[in-house]
Design goal:
The protein is an alpha/beta fold. It folds into two domains: 3-58 and 94-209, Rossmann fold, CATH 3.40.50.10490; 64-93. It contains ten helices and five strands; from the N terminus they run ααβαααβααβαβαβα. A five-stranded parallel beta sheet has the order 2-1-3-4-5, with helices on both faces. Strand 3 (133-137), helix 8 and strand 4 (159-164) form a beta-alpha-beta unit. The radius of gyration is 18 Å and the shape is globular.
């Protein structure tokens, strides 16, 4: 059974989101193929989800991600064979992703000095490049700071994916792809976001590291 069918077997309610999940995977794949990165934001539990996604992408998730031969050689040329082997046996290739709440000094300084509602927009403005992708996570789809981040991304030519509950929202009107899981109560929406992004991370890993 492939990963997508396993997702829908375990979480049949998500079948209604299949087309959007497929589109999200396609967009994320394109971003990584073009050398971009993911910028991810949310509040509360959704902030934790943003960090969780980074954890699955930036190191091995279900597969091993050893250095390439060229990477091993670069370490050997710089550090010598023995030390290079220690790095090569420990470091894992990643898919670049940043949780926008992670820079606490920036977060608190900007909130204090400027406007807390715009703190994620500031991070997008500072980190973002046109080849990147913003993932905005909001159970309501209307979290002000996430919406403002998506607006900033749109102005900068950065595409966006939203993970929300089932209702149409400000985020769904802005994002290129919105996965609207079929729940409205906050904790139930969050319970369905997790299998969606676990599937996306596992599928991306298979695409980029599955033949190693």
């Amino acid at each position: 059974m492939n990963k997508k069918e396993e997702l829908f077997q375990r979480y049949p309610a998500l079948r209604v989101c299949e087309a959007e999940i497929d589109r999200a995977l396609s967009l994320m794949t394109e971003v990584y193929e073009n050398g971009g990165k993911l910028l991810i934001c949310g509040n509360g539990g959704s902030c934790s989800d943003a960090q969780h996604i980074v954890g699955e992408l930036m190191k091995g998730f279900l597969l091993k991600r050893p250095m390439t031969a060229a990477q091993k050689q670069a370490f050997a040329d710089t550090l010598g064979e023995e030390e290079a082997e220690a790095f090569a046996s420990r470091l894992q290739r990643g898919l670049p992703a940043i949780a926008l709440d992670g820079a606490s000094a920036l977060f608190t300084a900007y909130a204090n000095d400027a406007d807390a509602d715009y703190v994620y927009a500031q991070a997008v403005f500072g980190y973002g490049k046109p080849e990147d992708l913003l993932i905005g996570i909001s159970t309501s789809g209307n979290s002000k700071n996430v919406v403002l981040a998506m607006k900033a991304a749109k102005a900068l030519g950065i595409r966006g994916i939203a993970l929300t509950g089932e209702k149409e929202s400000k985020l769904s009107a802005l994002a290129d792809v919105t996965v609207r899981v079929p729940e409205t109560e906050t904790f139930k929406v969050q319970e369905l976001h997790l299998p969606v992004y676990h599937y996306l991370c596992a599928a991306l890993e298979e695409i980029f590291f599955g033949e190693d």
